[in-house]
Amino acid sequence: MAALAAGISVQARAADIVGQPVDGAMGLQPGYSSLKHEAIFFHDKVLLPIITAITLFVLLLLMICVVKFNRRANPTPAKWSHNTKIEIVWTLVPILILMVIAIFSFRLLFSYHNMPTPDLTVKATGYQWYWGYTYPDQKIDEFTSNVLTKEDATAKGEPYLLAADHSMVVPVNKVVHVLVTGADVIHDFALPAFGIKIDAVPGRVNEAWFKAEKTGIYYGQCDQLCGVNHAFMPIEIKVVTQPEFNAWVASQHAPAAPAAAPTKTASADIAAPQKVALNTTAPVATH
Ligand SMILES: [Cu+2]
């Protein structure tokens, strides 16, 4: 593989992985962008306590009914069917709870919507079954990103079904505007560590944004059932420093070296992109 040839050791590669699911973990994947921090707050500090309180309250009511109103403890049940006071309470309290949830929910929605001025725009196109990335401002034509085979992923020290041959590369601490569309059917561009999940719909462009807080490799997946190989079109985003990003952009413009002959990709039906793989450990020389 080109990346291995470029000198990335297995250990170095594995150490770079920041955003990926972990076995036996509870809760949401740790966040590395402001949107994800807000989403985690909404889930952990707003929704979870409310849901827990409601569940325990209902359980308590059920237990009271079971103990106090069973046939033995309460042989002659009351016959009344209305209680205006309690009906007002059970209407108003849920309305208040929903209003509290709505305040935080809308705040989160507005954060997603109010995109800061982007430093970089990347277009992500979903295909059956791979992703294509285009950098319009950097004049980088679309390159494809295919799932790595089990052998290639293991050799690179990356997780199978999450690792891709060519990642989307972005600079750290910069606002990245992602334009998402689909080429054939509906896909979904989802990257848990950045709190992104947006449909890739043919014929229209959706947008999402993130500002990665840490360099490293982040994994996501297509989140919309899109056909037989839906599980085999991972999203790999490599967050690098600005100089490393500049070097990568330059390497994308450089003519492919004859030595770096066609790279083997996981899908045989996709032509291997003639791009130089990014070396995160040593910046690629600019031409
Ligand atoms: Cu899919």
* Estimated radius of gyration: 25 Å
Count of individual beta strands = 11
**SS-based structural class?**
alpha/beta
Pick out the low-confidence regions: 1-10, 259-287
Structurally, the number of domains stands at 2
| Main sheet attributes: strand count, strand direction, barrel closure | 6 strands, mixed
**Mean of residue pLDDT values:** 87
Enumerate the distinct ligands. copper (II) ion
First CA to last CA: what distance?
22 Å
Query: CATH superfamily membership of the largest domain, which one?
Result: Cupredoxins -  blue copper proteins
Categorize the overall geometry.
Answer: elongated
- Fraction of helical residues: 25-40%
Question: In words, what does this structure look like?
Answer:
About 35% of the residues lie in helices and about 20% in strands. It is of the alpha/beta class and about 290 residues long. It has 2 domains: about 35-75 and about 80-115, no CATH class; about 115-255, Sandwich (Immunoglobulin-like). Strands 1, 5, 7, 8, 10 and 11 form a 6-stranded mixed beta sheet that branches. A 5-stranded mixed beta sheet has the order 4-3-2-6-9. The longest helix has about 35 residues, at about 35-70. Mean pLDDT is about 85; it is low at about 1-10 and about 260-285. Copper (II) ion binds near residues 187, 222 and 226.
Annotation keywords:
6-stranded mixed sheet; 6 helices; binds copper (II) ion; alpha/beta; single chain; 287 residues; disordered N terminus; Immunoglobulin-like
